[in-house]
Specification:
heterodimer; A: 114 residues; mainly beta; 7-stranded mixed beta sheet; 0% helix; globular; B: 111 residues
Chain lengths: 114, 111
């Protein structure tokens, strides 16, 4: 069966510090991978998605970046965090080539920038 | 911008009652999905309904889709305290890997 992991679960970082959030998927090959951000009490905002190694599509201009160094690894990074980067970050995957199909979410990382 | 918009924003019901929430969207879709999110957790997929389907059931869940009105509804029958969560609809666009999520309906089931 497939599983998705995210870490860390919670992170408190000062403004201006770097960020690296990691997401890994097990039990599937060449998944589509997604990073979302959720503000408190709000819906999901798609940040990045990837349909293959080294292929990253950015949805929202911001000071975040994403990378996919391996087939089942997706990393969200920032060189300098802003207060507005605080939120709940969710990674998700869907089956390779799946258009509009089910996405499976990780447990999320709660980021607080102070 | 968000494609799907849920209504109402919040819903409080007594255990055993039914809960109904709606989702409206703006452009043509292939599929519409409903997800549940417990507080502080990731989203869990509940049900997917395709554009050529009108109704779908899964356990105590019933989803309808009206493509002419660009709307969907999720009905939870005989609610339980464990159904307390936020519910989101998500829509796709033709030949697009992305889903667009609404802001969600927060459901509270009182014991």
């Amino acid at each position: 069966s497939q599983t998705i992991h995210q870490w860390p679960a919670t992170l408190v970082q000062p403004v201006g510090s770097p960020l690296s959030l990691e997401c890994t998927v097990e039990g599937t090959s060449n998944p589509n991978l997604y990073w979302y951000r959720q503000a408190a009490g709000r819906g999901l905002q798609l940040l990045f998605y990837s349909v293959g190694i080294g292929q990253i599509s950015s949805e929202v201009p911001q000071n975040l970046s994403a990378s996919r160094p391996q087939d089942r690894q997706f990393i969200l990074s920032s060189k300098k965090l802003l207060l507005s980067d605080s939120g709940f970050y969710l990674c998700a995957w869907s089956s390779a080539g799946a258009v509009g199909e089910t996405q499976y979410f990780g447990p999320g990382t709660r980021l607080l920038v102070l | 911008s968000q494609q799907g918009e849920e209504d109402p924003q919040a819903l409080s019901i007594q255990e055993g009652e039914n809960a109904t929430m709606n989702c409206s969207y703006k452009t043509s879709i292939n599929n519409l999905q409903w997800y549940r999110q417990n507080s502080g957790r990731g989203l869990v997929h509940l049900i997917l309904i395709r554009s050529n389907e009108r109704e779908k059931h899964s356990g105590r869940l019933r989803v309808t889709l009206d493509t002419s009105k660009k709307s969907s509804s999720l009905l939870i029958t005989a609610s339980r305290a464990a159904d307390t969560a936020s519910y989101f609809c998500a829509t796709d666009k033709s030949n697009d890997y992305k889903l667009s999520f609404g802001a969600g309906t927060t459901v509270t089931v009182r014991a």
